[in-house]
Each structure stands twice: as C-alpha cells, then as structure tokens.
C-alpha cells in the first residue's frame, strides 16, 4: 500500500512539472500547406564549354582539323598507276595532296601524299621516276613505289630518301589484288599496300615514323572566295592522249575530277574524287635522249608560272625551287606564300606549252562511271 501511495504521488508531481514546461517538451508539428499549385524552379545551370577541337591540331597538308596522334604521322608519297586499265584506283580519295605529272608515252602518274589512310589497300602502285623524289622531299615523305627507272633509283640514293620498293618487298609490305593479277594484261596494275604495312616496316627499319610536317602553303581559317576570274571547268591537256578535267560544284565549293571524259572514282568507297584547291605548275618536259622506253625529264628547278584555282576562281601564280633537297615555293602575284582553302589539293605539273582552258559555261555535266 505504501508503494502504491508513493507511485501515485510521483505521477502527480511529474504531470504538474510537465505541464509547467510545455514549451520545452512539445513536438513541432508543421502547419498544413497547399502543394497543388507549387512550381519548383530549377536552379540555373551553366554547362561547361566543351572545346570541339580538343585533342586535335591543324593538318599542315590540308589546313583542316585532325587528331593529334595522326598529325604526327610522317607523310607517305605513294606512286599511283593512272593508266585507263589500272582504274579505278583504291584509297586515293583519302590523300591530302595529289601530284599529277607526265611519264612516258603521254600518260600521267599520280604521287599521292597521305598522313593517314584507312583503306585496306592503296594503289595500284607503279615505278618511280627521277622527278618523283623532289616531290617526296616537298613534304619530308617516305617514297613508296614498285620498281623504278635507272635515274629514279639514282635520285633516291643521291638525295638520301627513305623509300619502300615493291620489287624487294612484294609478299610482305606489298601485296597483289589476285583478281587483277590473274587477269590477262592486268598483272602490272595489281600491286597494293596499306598504312599498317608501311608503318610496321618503317618501324622495323628504324625510319622516323613521327615527324613535324613542313608547311608548303598557308591556309585560310574558313572557306574564302578570293579575288580572281570565275571558272566552272578547267581542262588540263597533259598530252595528246591524256586530258583531265575539273568541274566546280557551287553548292559545296569543291572541284570534281574527270579524265578522258569519265568521272574518276575511288574503288575503296565508290566516291567521286574531289578537291578544294588546284595548283597548276608549268615547266619544261623533254624526252630523255636515247631512252629505250621513251621516258621524259620534267624540270623541277628554277622559276616558272602557273595558276591557282579555288572556290570557282583562278589567278596566275609563280613557283620557284632553288635545289632538289629544298621545297617548292608557290607565290601569289604579290610574291606572298599562297593561301589555300582548307581541304585537299591537286597539283598538276604540265608542259610549258600546254594549252590550259578555263571555262565558265558548264551546264548539266553528265557524270559517267568507269566500266
């Protein structure tokens, strides 16, 4: 009974103390609020600016953005067969610069300059000539060819050019398109290589694989229409048996390549060859006296005239070269280094007396494919 009385008294005291300190022990209950019409405003967010060219640099051969690891690739100068039976060629649409120059018999060969090529085969590859070596030197490039004339081999030795020769490296670095190889009259048009083969060989021989590429031109940062005479077609008569044409497309600012009246196609991706810039270099071309194959000598030294074509305009230019181990310099009328539009360039080397035509009346030109 005493315990009960004590418990009863303790309970009453605790209740009285609790009521007296209500402000300390009460639990906070929020007032009811309406939530139906509340709009939550998102916090202002300013995304970080992303550089679209992060990890990229300007390609010295084209003036366009490329991945930094590709930019360090040493250029390759690949001698491409340009006979009608050799067409279509493979991989040349990925070239940064293409030179076209006469060989024997009124035909031309192409020296395609690459910093990178993804095509599984590039070619068909043919033999080198003496004046191909200075073209490779223009870009500090490795010269890649299948055979060569006696003076062609002499130029490689005398100028100390790194080269890959299919006459020695067939079956390893160079390989055959077996369909062409087994077709009558096509064996000499069946030699190919690719970027991985070239790079692996260069590494095994201790060649410099990554090098700074010398600039041959300056480039506009964006597409420009320079002063000059309007042109929609250029006709390049290399010889009586070979004429090439470029047709301008005003919609994309590119020139489309034709030869012998047919569109020039890249077999790798079935694309029509296009370029942003065309440089025409006029120089003396003479038959080599007593040469049993009728080979020619193309002068690469001194000073001469030519034309620069871009964005549907053409202007006269000057070229000069002081030595075979230096670069060719292309100058505008004010003797400044040429400014090119970003993109690939075709350099056509023609005889001084070639009657080049600049036309401005092409309509509805029909594109034909090679059979």
Word description of this protein:
The chain is of the alpha+beta class and 371 residues long. Helices cover 17% and strands 31% of the residues. It contains 8 helices and 27 strands. The protein has helices at 2-20, 22-25, 68-71, 132-137, 150-159, 166-169, 178-181, 195-205; strands at 56-58, 65-67, 76-80, 97-102, 108-114, 142-145, 163-165, 175-176, 191-192, 218-219, 229-230, 233-239, 242-249, 254-259, 262-263, 265-266, 271-272, 274-275, 277-283, 285-287, 296-298, 302-310, 313-321, 329-331, 339-340, 345-351, 357-359. The strands form 7 sheets. Strands 3, 4, 5, 6, 7, 11, 19, 22, 23, 24 and 26 form an 11-stranded mixed β-sheet that branches. Strands 12, 13, 14, 15, 18 and 27 form a 6-stranded antiparallel β-sheet that branches. Strand 14 (254-259) and strand 15 form a beta hairpin. It is globular and about 75 Å long.
Task: Give the key terms.
371 residues, alpha+beta, 11-stranded mixed sheet, 17% helix
| End-to-end Cα distance | 121 Å
Major β-sheet annotation: 11 strands, mixed
Helix share of residues? 10-25%
Query: Shape, please?
Result: globular
The number of distinct β-strands equals 27
Q: How confident overall, as mean pLDDT? A: 86
What amount of the residues lies in strands?
Answer: 25-35%
Derived structural class: alpha+beta
Low-confidence stretches: 1-30, 364-371
**Whole-angstrom Rg:** 35 Å
Determine the number of helices (DSSP H or I, runs of at least 4 residues): 8
């Amino acid at each position: 009974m005493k315990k009960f009385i004590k418990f009863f008294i303790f309970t009453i005291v605790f209740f009285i103390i609790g009521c007296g300190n209500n402000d300390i022990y009460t639990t906070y209950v929020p007032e009811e609020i309406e939530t139906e019409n509340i709009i939550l405003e998102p916090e202002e967010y300013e995304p970080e600016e992303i550089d679209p060219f992060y990890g990229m640099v300007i390609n010295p051969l084209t003036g366009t953005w490329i991945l930094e690891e590709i930019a360090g690739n040493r250029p390759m100068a690949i001698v491409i067969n340009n006979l009608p039976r050799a067409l279509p060629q493979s991989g040349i649409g990925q070239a940064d610069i293409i030179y076209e120059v006469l060989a024997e018999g009124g035909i031309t060969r192409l020296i395609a300059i690459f910093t990178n090529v993804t095509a599984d085969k590039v070619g068909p590859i043919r033999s080198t000539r003496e004046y191909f070596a200075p073209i490779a030197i223009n870009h500090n490039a490795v010269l890649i060819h299948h055979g060569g004339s006696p003076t062609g081999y002499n130029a490689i030795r005398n100028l100390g050019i790194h080269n890959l020769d299919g006459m020695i490296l067939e079956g390893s670095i160079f390989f055959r398109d077996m369909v062409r190889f087994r077709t009558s009259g096509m064996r000499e048009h069946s030699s190919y290589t690719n970027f991985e083969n070239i790079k692996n060989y260069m590494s095994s021989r201790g060649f410099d694989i990554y090098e700074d590429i010398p600039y041959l031109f300056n480039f506009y940062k964006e597409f420009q229409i320079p002063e000059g005479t309007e042109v929609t077609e250029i006709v390049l008569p290399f010889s009586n048996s070979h004429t090439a044409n470029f047709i301008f497309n005003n919609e994309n600012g590119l020139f489309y390549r034709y030869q012998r009246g047919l569109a020039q196609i890249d077999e790798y991706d079935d694309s029509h060859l296009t370029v942003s810039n065309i440089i025409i270099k006029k120089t003396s071309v003479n038959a080599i006296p007593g040469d049993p194959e009728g080979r020619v000598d193309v002068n690469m030294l001194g000073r001469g005239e030519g034309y620069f074509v871009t964005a549907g305009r053409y202007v006269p230019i000057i070229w000069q070269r002081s030595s075979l181990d230096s670069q060719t310099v292309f100058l505008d009328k004010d003797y400044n280094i040429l400014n090119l539009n970003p993109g690939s360039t075709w350099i056509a080397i023609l005889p001084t007396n070639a009657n080049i035509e600049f036309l401005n009346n092409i309509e509805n030109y029909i594109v034909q494919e090679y059979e």
